[in-house]
Amino acid sequence: MDFLNRHLWLKRTLMFLAILVAAPFAGYLLLFIEVVGLEVAFTCLLILINPFLTWLKMHVDDIRTTFRAISNNLHKHIMASPVVYFSHAASSTALFAITGVIFVSVAVWLPLFIVGARYA
Description:
The chain is an all-alpha fold. It has 5 helices and no strands.
């Protein structure tokens, strides 16, 4: 802080840049600069940031709670247990190896045969 007090131009430049960043959202800060000065406008900006930070913190907490609930539900699900997962994966792999080619050919050609038989 002592550095900014020694270099007043740097302090004012940083305050002005902060106000310019916030100007699209709070245009009246530029009017405050015109009427009462840069320091008062920067103070008003700091006062206005507090409700926004409270709102943002509330929403971030809601998002964290939601993701925590989703994670807990996924870990408690029956499919998350290794025995169930590996048995389903093994049976699915075996069934695809046995009937995969037949299933794909039937899924592609059977509708054509049915439609062709109807109009033949």
